[in-house]
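Input.
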Amino acid sequence: MGFSLNRRSLLHAGLGLTGGFALLRANSSLAAPAPGQAPSPGAQEPSRPWYELGLLSDPIMENQLLHFLAATYSAQADIGEVLDTASRIHPEDEWSWPTEWVSTADRLRAMGDASLTRRHSRSAGNAYLRAANYYRAALIHHPEPGHPSVLATGRKAVDTYDKALRLLEIPATPVRIPYENTTLPGYFFRAPHTRGDAPLLIFQQGRDAWPEESKYVIDDALARGYHCLIVHAPGQGMAVRAQHLTFRPDWEKVITPVVNFAVRISGVDSRRLALLGWSMGGALVPRAAAFERRLKILIPNPGVLDWGKSQFDNFNGYFPDIMKLLDTDPAAFDAALYELMSQVFLYRWYMRDAMSKHGASSPSDLLFKLREFTNVPVVHRIRCRTLVMDGTAEAYSGAQARQLYDALTCPKDYLLFTEEDTGLLHCQEAAQAVANHRMFDWLDEYI
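Output.
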């Protein structure tokens, strides 16, 4: 999952291209009564889509809140716990988000400990599963990626998740996948009711979410007889936080070692390998598939032809004057961005987070690195059957999914989610049932 800055989400929050947060405050004061103040008689609430919750003033936090509400579908969250946590968060305090999520996670972990002491293993496992997700939530909007609490919270997430797997008897095994001079952490999920070799789904997350958060995909895959392999790849999860491994544009250098590992697992049918990429993963996995010929199926969600261009389009949309400096005067570009970052937490969070995950030393260095993330030169090399997923309200990749589909020369299908089926948002956020329904119906036919 990805929550990178985009013009649409900023405009939904009332953020213009200049003086955006002042406009946000002005719009907020007009749109709703002050806390504790009743609306005037006859006043009508302005209509808004169901997915704009109106609970937090920060548009990215709102998006992330919906993400964790949606985790109730896979028993990794409870509605009351998520909303209670949100009610304690003050977006103007940049430490409020991680502090409150850790507080909720610690409370759930203590509940799990108490139940485990009394040998209530099922209750303990359920509490640990939710606690792990809330620890991950704390890290998705952390103000200082290099702060010691980041690694400590990540380790709590791993520890409680591992306990949940064991106590709930989820058929998962922690693995370490050889990668260059180190290893990548991950989990192999063995389908419990298969006979003989079975197909394997390799699941690749995006810029922000951890692969464990996509349990809803894993659950349905296992029920249908697919094994699953998830990995903390460079730039993600514990690979970036504990090992300082950052994103790289030549993603085949990541996926090929994963496939090398996967085909050696007993029970995996090496002729039926599917690679799924969510969010920024929808830009990374096509690059990998252009070089990794052992894949039978590719599913980018949403499909992305040129990730660098999509990010530049977003930056040009609301920083047009500053962007003119990038190639002519990078130092001036950096100075202007740092000034904006000092004034607006939303910008400060995004730039610090993205720079950390890409190993960038400055805002200009980040954009120069992003420019390298493109599939245009290699898309013609993809040979495996590909399902390009998209949504009519896809906010993070523009029209890139359709562009990728049109550029593909392999057997291909295009799956569009709409307002009618509720899967219109980025990666079908909060529409997990319909997303699984349509994707797995397609996958069952072609795997």
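Confidence is low (pLDDT under 50) at residues 7-39.
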